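#struct-help
A.M.: can someone run this one for me? Single chain, 115 residues.
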Amino acid sequence: MKPTNSTDTVELTFADGRRIAVHTMIADRVRGIDADGDLLVPLGEPDNPIHHDDGTEYLIALTPCCHASGKGSAMAEGGVVCRSCHDEVDSKYAGPGTLALAVTAATPEPPNASG
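D.P.: on it. Structure tokens below:
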């Protein structure tokens, strides 16, 4: 879920110093970003994530349009749409993601000074 205003955001800092504002509802689930800069979260419920056979979390990339997961769709040319806006997205959003940079800090965004 992409933030709509600064009172709904947390600024995440990544290992390379990059910062991204994300909605407070997903901030604690974001583990990092992939090589394309897309946010990665564990697949499954917050209190019951899915793991690979080696015990590591199964991460999925969130769509750049809405910060949502992808889902298969017979109506989409590429077969995958964003779960939130239903726009067609790359097939990578329907499979496992690979962590490129981990989250190193999370800071609540200050409210917008103009109001």
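A.M.: thanks! Residues 6-108 form one domain.
D.P.: also worth noting: The chain has a mean pLDDT of 87.
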